[in-house]
Fold this sequence. Notes:
The complex is a heterodimer of chains A (278) and B (288). By secondary structure, chain A is an all-alpha fold. In chain A, 78% of the residues lie in helices and 0% in strands. In chain A, α1 (12-39) packs across α13 (241-277) and α8 (139-164) packs across α11. The longest helix of chain A has 37 residues, at 241-277. Chain B starts with 5 loop residues before the first helix and ends in a 6-residue tail after the last helix. At the A-B interface, α1, α3, α4, α5 and α6 of A face α1, α2, α4, α5 and α6 of B.
Amino acid sequence: MSFKKPSMLPGFGLTFGFTTVFLSTIVLLPLAALVAAGTSLQWSEFLHVVASPRALGSYRLSFGASLLAASINVVFGFIIAWTLVRYEFPGRKIIDALIDMPFALPTAVSGIALTTVFAQNGWIGRYLEPLGIKVAYTWLGVTLALTLISMPFAVRAVQPALLEVQRELEDAAETLGAGRFYVFRRIILPTVLPALLTGFTLAFARAVGEYGSVIFIAGNIPMKTEITPLLIVIHLEEFDYHGAAALGLVMLAMSFVVLLTINLLQAWGRRRHVRAAH
Amino acid sequence: MARSPSGALAADLNRPGQHTWMHSIVRWLFISVSLTFLAAVLLAPLATVFAMAFAKGVSAYLHTFADPDTTAAIRLTLITALIVVPVNTIFGLAAAWAIAKFEFRGKSVLITLIDLPLAVSPVISGMIFVLLFGVHGWFGLWLQEHDLSIVFALPGIVLATMFVTFPYVARELIPLMQQLGNDEEEAAITLGAGGWMTFFRVTLPKVRWGLVYGMVLCNARAMGEFGAVSVVSGHIRGLTNTMPLHIEILYNEYNFVGAFAVASLLTLLACLTLIVKTLVERTGYRRR
């Protein structure tokens, strides 16, 4: 088989050539530099950087808070998507458009605004303070920022799936005496489960690399509220390029493993779903 | 993106079993939980931006924009977007033409590689250019000998922004062009139109809404990018500070009116982006 199927349309050479050359210079070559710099360290030096207590503390926060934020978004993403798809209420269309705000809003703006709202004297923070809940400058604040910026991924993943749930099936089940919760568990949940997992994956992937919105609300205390991307920046500012690249490689590898796991889970879920249908 | 027409919802309300007390409670619960959540994490921060920006009155707000460092930051952000958005648009059009109009081996790999920047942390997106062009980077020495600077200068900011916004136009156009097919283009070519004429007169009008959609999102990200630009910029006031970086500096100096005044401009840009996006979706163009 030849490289390209014949076609009567012109322009393949020009567009394919431009695409690959541009992709190589802007994306592939720089990423190759990361791999080269990260792997040029001796194994012991590499471990010294990526397994230092400070680095381990940052992974715990970055991955822990991202998992938590993605989980929160699966729950609230489902509730919000359900509300937007199933109910009519004043302002529904505006709310629907606003869901994408965290995509459009620069992360630095989200960061300073959230910090102000949840600081001790902020609009919401002042009511949490007497309850002993500190959000700004704690891991809770990190989770909150990550929840905000990854929220649209969960909602937008679930919304189309909910539209596809067959109402007839629900009605049939209810006529046959199924309770509302039973219908939810046996009909709605299986239909939207793959979408929920996709939403979780996308939200997690976005959250784990996030930098701009987090650094304002985190407090950035080493071992406690320092995320991995910030630790990379600190290494860069000290001109420790190899250390920064090593941490970057660890981050890429760990998010790759998490995403792979979730994709496998999803494939398993699909197989199970198909078997159940037979 | 709300694919449910209001008519269907209205019909829904008349379905049997929709007026039980149980249903009303669940409905009320879902709406109030959704609105409370969104109010706390989304609306309150948005309102805060403007409340803080105007906390000391309109003149203090306007005074921020008299500062030459602020105007320099706004100018740099505009210049960056003016370079990045057109270049990524041309790339997106070329990639979509190659991928949607032709069958070739390794196509799915190419699509995956185009989406790659979306999976990379912004900090890493900036760092890779430091590794290439920084003092100790691959081309660092050569650049120094020729008295060129990329990192801590405009080219670095443009490159990092370009990397981060790389997929936006392409990933809108590729599925759209694939879906629309080649029939009209083939007819145009058969009737004697040249390649460029076919592109400008047949293809471009067909995909215009997808193009606008992708460009608007690309622009929003280009103007708002923080992490990647922060790593390559060097934070030199008045020279390599973009608007998001300037917000950070003002905020860390406890100049809250200034920080939120600049933030208010970017918030308005975000609102404008959402409005254009919603209008484009209303023409019938939707994300798949």
